[in-house]
Amino acid sequence: MTQLTSSGAADTEIAHVNVQNGRAFSLNAFGMNYAFHVDANGELVHDHFGTPAEVQPTEVGPEHISGWATRLTDEKRELPDVGRGDFRLPAIHIRTGAGHTVTEFKYTGYEVVRGKPELEGLPATFGGERDVASVIITLEDEESGLVATLRYSVFPAHNAVTRSYTITNKGGQDVEIKRAASFTLNLDAGEWDMVYLTGDWAREANQVRRRVETGTQGFHSLCGYSSHFFNPFVALVSSDTTETSGPAYGLSFVYSGSFAVEVEKFVSDRVRANIGLHPLHLDWKLAPGESFTAPESVAVFSNHGLGGMSRSFHRLYRDHLSRSEWTYRPRPVLLNSWEGMYFDFDAEKLYTKAKDCADIGIKLYVMDDGWFGVKHPRTGDHAGLGDWVPNPDRFPNGLDDLVSRATSLSVHGSDQNLKFGIWVEPEMVNPQSELYEAHPDWVLHAGRHKRTEQRNQLVLDLSRRDVQDYLIDAIGSVLASANISFVKWDNNRAMHELPSPSTAHAYMLGLYRVVDSLTRRFPHILWDGCASGGGRFDPGLLHYWPQSWTSDNTDGLDRLHIQFGTSLVYPPSSMGAHVSAVPNHQVQRVTPLEFRAHVAMMGGSFGFELDLQALDDGERARVRDIIALSEKVSPYVLGGDLYRLAAPESNYPAALFMMPGGGRGVLLAFCMQARIHRYAPPLFFAGLDRMAAYEIDCKTYTGTDLMHSGLKLHWDARDYQSKVLFVKRLPYDN
Ligand code: GLA
Question: For the whole prediction, is pTM greater than 0.70?
Answer without folding.
Answer: yes
